[in-house]
Please model this.
Amino acid sequence: MECMRLFIAEKPSLARAIAAGLGLSQKREGCIVGGSDVVTWCFGHILEQYTPEDYDAKFKKWAIEDLPILPTEWKLKVSKDAETQYKIISQLVQKADVIVNAGDPDREGQLLVDEVLNQLGVLRKKNIKRILLNALDEKSVKTALGDLRDNQDFVGLRNSALARSRADWLIGMNLTRMYTIRANQVGYSGVVSVGRVQTPTLALIVRRELAIRNFKPVDYYILRVSCQHENGIFFAQWKPNPDCMEMDEEHRILDKSIIEGVIQRLDGTIGKIESVEQKRGQSLPRLPYSLSSLQIDAGKLFGYSPKEVLDAQQSLYERKLTTYPRSDCDYLPTNQLADVPQIFGQLKILSEEFAEYVALADASARSRAWNDEKISAHHAIIPTTERVNIDELSETERNLYLLTAKAYLAQFYPPQTFLTTQIDVTYDGEHFHASGKTILDDGWKKLYAGGEEEKSDQENHEEEQKLPVVEKGDTVIARAMEIVSRTTKPPKRFNPSTLLKAMKEIGKYVKDDSLKPILKDCSGIGTEATRASIIEMLQTRGFVSMQKKFLVPTEKGFLMLKILSDNITYPDITARWEHSLDRISCKEISLKDFFAEQSEFVRHLLKDGKEKPIPPSKTAIYCPKCGAIMQRRYTMRNGKKSYFWGCSNYPKCKEIVSDNNQELGVPISKKKKKPKENFIYTPKF
Model:
């Protein structure tokens, strides 16, 4: 009797690709079979975490005295819309001799299948393998099927996702309840939603907006001189001596008359070249794309939101045209080199332009991207060996595919080489500096010549001047001295792409500077798979709105920063947690140690929140009897919500007033039986 091998895929599309690779075609309810192999699937997470009230019915009522809620035994339940598929998986799992975790090749994919196996009681009892599918084309699937790993090798990856999920629960459930109760006590309506990643991300937007609104422009001046040399003219900028001039703390000249005096003294004078320094340099080929870097570039070049990029990349992946989209890696494994001829063959038929790109590429070249040590569960996003009909793609898909293809081809081009020149000049004791750059060979940047990518790059750099050949000691005459007026500019508002970049480079935004070196290599807050949805969620929950492609906080967004403690709005703790999650993935710390730390953090954050002064809402409604703030509550009657207002000074004041369209109605008679409270805060936003 043959051993039954069961593949559990993360989603149906992945299951179909595996079944095709195995040659299976017999479709049954919830699975595909053939011989001794069976492929079944989940629909993403088919298990969901218990809510506080699932653990204990008393938590249905939100009360500060019940916090913190720290489960001693974490429990999951089957999602209602996945009950049928769960039963199918359960039956198949019991029959299987070998089980293959076919979740996506990332933390969540590992956890998604492992948690089902754990719920069914077989995670540590059966022979479990792991398949890592970075692409769904036939060649990639068959290669992965021939390289099944031991699922135990990915315990760190699973534990990292598990820790992330539970940390999100601890922060969300405890702090949302605590801040909602406290905010309602001072007249704010609705739920104050707090998230481990959501809240510091919102705070980035709010603080940036406050910096813009509080910004005061400063006018300053610089002096440029046209230096006439026998071999040509070049421009140099004055470098005033800070010990002799009145400058601000940023070393800027604010008084125009100072520069006017220098011009009167130096115009037409003869100066001397004090030093000439030339260096050859090179710009290495850009790395292939991770999801974040693709989202950032696509946002900058085409205005696509992170979610639009993720959705389009998911489509390209499921059509077998590009590799796994939710990758946080921008390196490639050396075994992928075997696919280079086939990928080149597909890219050169895209267009005449790409035929020329491929012709100029050196298939034997090895860029820094080919590094097995940088690869974990997945690699950078690249084209597959599948033929693509570019005309069948949507505009978004086409643009992203071509971006991915160019970044891949860049790995087979030489570095761009250039010569930089620095010249220092003195005129009557005053120092001037000139710099220039000469491109010797465009190298990999030929791929981007004249395109939107090159234009975008040029916008971020001042035009480099071509300097004449000069030598130390040469004389130069000061001609056409020019005062350039400049004004300081406020920081730019975040758009979805620049916000995503900030989330990834979160170490730049921590409050405690001592954390910056620790977080330099941190993967940021959120994951490749979740950052886009967090940005979307901030909009759907009404914390921010899009105004002319920029994210602007709403009154509700400003309110959050006003109410919440710095410890949860600054990314310091969240970023440290992300660093710990990376360490869990590498098996450097245990889940037990992580949760001991989390429990302590949650207690600290709750204590901080209890002590945080929250100013009363400007729209607060006050008790007609004692002057305390009234709170809008409801009780359930015949399956419907019946609203009323109760005094926050209860039990000292027992005033109860009816609700009249979210305003105070008439006092409810004390002779009537007081409604039984089912105290639930209700959003008014």
